[in-house]
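# step 3/5: fold
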Amino acid sequence: MQTILKETKLESALIYIRNLNNCPPSYLYDPARKDFFEIVWLNNEDPLHDLKVNDLDIKGDWIYLIPPYRVHQLNKAGKKGELISFKREILEEDDKEFLLDLFKIFNVQGEFSCLRVDKEAAAGLGSVYQLLNEEYEKGQDNLVIVKALLKVFLLKLIQIKEHEFTGHDINQKRVYEFLMLLESNYLAVRNTDFYAGKLGISSKRLNQILKDKLDKTGMQLIHDRIILESKRLIIHSESTIKEISYALGFSDRPYFSRFFKKQTGQTPDEFQKQAQNHMKSKLNTLV
């Protein structure tokens, strides 16, 4: 039976909530962690990833949305904040629109999604989080209430993320729509014409927009998404590299290896060895 988790073993749990300063090593090393969505909320901290804008005051509230089977891990050392981890099973599967919106915000940027939260949004999230944590601490009898409050918290995150994308100009909206299409189609369709057609613009125009907003062409972003999935499967699955190459639509392993090395500078085998060594020495990292 799956439960609210008050201990540290994840296999039988649906949800796990901790202050970052009180997150035990057993959570970080638990193999079942790969099945959980993670929300990492940093309170008045610098972000964990590099920003291109140098003159921005970057200290503040940052929320990282890390999907299952992620490549990255969180370097929380010395950070103030909260952790919410949950399995998909805790959500109501019949609410398809909510699930789609949720998957979008967790995957829209690939390996992790990050939100800069202003004071007003942080206050709103904080009030819901406080109620959620209080009910979580009461244990299994409050699972129904925990589920409801988790959904409210997630809906607020969706609202923040949607505003971030759709509150901008028409080209920013097109970038958002392209990323959503890419997430659903990258395994089957790997040409820019398809995505441009879906958006009702030319491939040349789509590439201009993507280059301006993300500094990459459509094909580069398609390749990035394939590489991301390659890395996830190499790190988190039991499949061989040959099996992974076929799963990703490559005709043979050598072709996949050449593609992977061209994009990353490493062969899949070299990446796998490096990742294994990295996880042994620096499991709790985002880089």
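# step 4/5: annotate
DSSP finds eleven helices and six strands in the chain.
# step 5/5: archive (pending)
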